[in-house]
Every structure is written in structure tokens, then in C-alpha cells.
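Exercise 3.2. Students should predict the tertiary structure of the chain below and write it as C-alpha cells, then compare their answer with the key that follows.

Predict this chain's 3D structure.
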Amino acid sequence: MAVSLKDPQDGDLGEVADINVTPFIDVILVLLIIFMVAAPLSTVDVAVDLPVSNAQPQPRPETPVFLTVKGDLSLALGNDAVPREALQATLDQRTSNDREQRIFLRADGAVAYRELMEVMNLLRKAGYLKIALVGLEDTGQGAPAAGP
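Answer key:
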């Protein structure tokens, strides 16, 4: 509440309705400085020319071929263990020599990237160039769902 400094004998003791905006302006200026300093820190400085993907989701085959790299680096084709040396023969048998068929590659989270690349090189050497990496799909409802 503000009081007028007029002569009290005028009989008019009205209130002054002016708001002191100086503290408000000070707070706004401090916030502006904080955002000006913090904004450049939140950006990524690595220049990358990212490609644009317009790929449509592919229909899932009736009997997908899953190749799994387990945590101990052993391989499994479907539910059956397969040695690395016999991978090409087993894949040819499973796919009826159809090397255009997509192979869904799954790996344990503990498998190193180098080991995963070695398995991909084995697939490439066997003639299977269509490889889909299988990961977990975030459904936004707690537990993630598995999906290719």
C-alpha cells in the first residue's frame, strides 16, 4: 500500500496504485543471462550430415530366420546351437539356398561390437547380405517389447 505525499490538510488521502517493477525486471534479466549462458552448452558441436530415411516398414516373413549371438559368443540359429564353421551350410539348409532372404541378427547386450561385426562378416562371406538387427522397441508402457 502506498501513500500520497500531498498535504494532509487537503482532505484527500488517496492511495497510489503504482507497482514497483524494479525487482521484477531484475529477476527477468538474471533469467535471461542464465538462459544465454546455458543455451550454447546444450547443443551438440559435432557437425554431421545425417542421411534421410524414407524406408517403409517391411512385412515380417512367415518364418523369419533368427541368428543369435549369445553372451558366451556362441551362435544359435533359431533355437539350435550352430558352430561358426557350419554357419553357411546350416543357413543354406534353413533358407533352401535363398541368399536373398533376410537374416534377423540378435545379440546379447554383453557382446562386444567387434564380435558382432565378426558374425556379420561371416554372414557376408556366406552370401547373406540382407541382415536386420533386432533390438528392443520402446512402447512407452514400462517394459520394452522385442521387435526387429
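Discussion points: The chain has a mean pLDDT of 78. Residues 22-41 form the longest helix (20 residues).
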